[in-house]
Amino acid sequence: MLTKEQKNQFNDILEELGKSLDISKTQYDAAVKSYQAVGEQLSKEDSNLAPYSPEIIPQGSFLFGTMTKPIHEDDDLDIDLVCQLTGKRADWTQLNLKQEVGDQLKKNKLYEERLDKPDGRRCWTLRYRDNSTNSRDKYHMDILPAIVDKGYKIVLEKAFSKAELDNKEDVAIRITDKIRGDYQTERDHKVWLLCNPFGYGKWFFQQAILDHILGESFRKSIQPVPAYSEEKLPLQRTVQILKRHRDMMFNGDEHKPISIIITTLAARAYNKETNIIEALLNVVDRMANFIEERYSVEHGRVIKWIGNPVNQKENFADKWPETPEKQDNFYKWLEQVQLDLNRIKESRGELIMKSMSDPFGKGLIEETFHRYGEKHQALREAGNLKMAKGTGILGAAGVTVRNHNFHGND
Questions:
Q1: CB atoms within 10 A of CB 298
Q2: Residues whose CB is less than 8 angstroms from the CB of residue 196 and which lie 6 or more positions away in sequence, other chains included
Q3: CB 173 within 8 A of CB 147
Q4: What burial class does residue 241 get, using C-beta atoms within 10 Å of its C-beta: 0-12 exposed, 13-18 middle, 19+ buried?
Q5: Alpha-carbon distance 165 to 35, whole Å?
Q6: For residue 53, is pLDDT > 60?
Q7: Residue 161: exposed, middle, or buried by beta-carbon count in 10 A (0-12, 13-18, 19+)?
Q8: Which of 360, 267, 272 minimizes the C-alpha distance to 316?
Q9: How far is it, in rounded angstroms, from Cα 44 to Cα 49?
């Protein structure tokens, strides 16, 4: 059982770990500038899309505030975006809409060079890292064409300003999907594939929010177009840390547990813990409880089911029956992360750093403890560093540790 002082120490260390995982404001601003420029290209006066007010809005980890640096410096950041249009030409099919977005991007020589060819199942992908040594350019953007109703932007902003989960269906979108049988023929967008990334985002923040610490900086970061924030809620840090552990354990394996499954199960298992170590330990202990078993007519047997919280007809584990390695790897990862977190929890002193190095990466942990040390030095110099009685644990509670003035006197 951890003491209060030990919990606070681990919380401080894990907070610094999360900050070490964050992308920088420079990277964030570069990505925002890039996707806003894409929106401007799609909205140009000569564009067939212009009458429908194209707008680019982030989804996924960029929206949730759970994006993490890749484990290898040369790897891409993956930024998921929605290109929302308030309507379309009556005769456009999904194929036509997808092509119109691609054609308008290709009118810009830079985008034409950066576009993946052919296009993906649902998205166009722009790669910004090719032939660049600038770390800010090492990302790619997946752009999902979508149809929304007029006034959608107002509805979306209101949805993120409320704590309730009502009316989350109002922020659903209709998207193109190449594998659907009606991809080349269906003109009525109201029967296209329904998707709700912003409803999911609203649900995630509802799970994450702690009202007593929801200050102005958090409010700005919990928006459909979030502002950069160095502050994160415990659930956001928990998801970042779990994703890093996954990345280190599988190191590029295509059958690694996917982020949406980790994020969904973590958010379901989270119980408003305010301390990151408590949140992590309790979340990994409870995650498996939220994996259902349902009979599948398609497969003729019971399968694992991890439902989308805003669309229970969607199973995030739908690839598990066809690719058993994905299911096996999830449970292997969950078992390993439990073992590693318990090993870290039982560590003391210098052994804490050692116990964290293998699961999270030696370089990252060195950076984390450098940050942690700088924070303690700043507290010491301000006269706010204290030592908990009888434990030797440094922090913000206990007996004040006086600053050294390096002149032979304390």
A1: 8
A2: 168, 169, 171, 172, 173, 308, 310, 311
A3: yes
A4: buried
A5: 29
A6: yes
A7: exposed
A8: 267
A9: 8
Q: Which residue has the tokens 């301000």?
A: 382
CA dihedral 236, 240, 242, 243 (to 10 degrees): 130
What backbone phi and psi angles, to 5 degrees, belong to 80? Answer: -95, 130
Positive or negative, the CA dihedral 264, 268, 272, 274 is: negative
| Nearest by Cα to 96 from 237, 232, 192, 194 | 192
Average pLDDT over residues 171-178: 95
- Is residue 401 within 8 A of residue 387, CB to CB? The reply is yes
Q: Is the pLDDT of residue 266 over 50?
A: yes
21: which residues sit within 8 A by CB, 6+ positions away? 68, 69, 240, 241, 244, 364
Other residues' Cβ atoms within 10 Å of the Cβ of residue 130: 10
Q: pLDDT digit string (tens) for 187-205?
A: 999 999 999 999 999 999 9
> Length of the chain, please?
410
| pTM score of the predicted model | 0.89
- CA dihedral sign, ordered 256, 258, 263, 268: negative
pLDDT tier at 149, thresholds 50, 70, 90: confident
* Spatial contact of 303 and 296, defined as CB atoms under 8 Å apart: yes
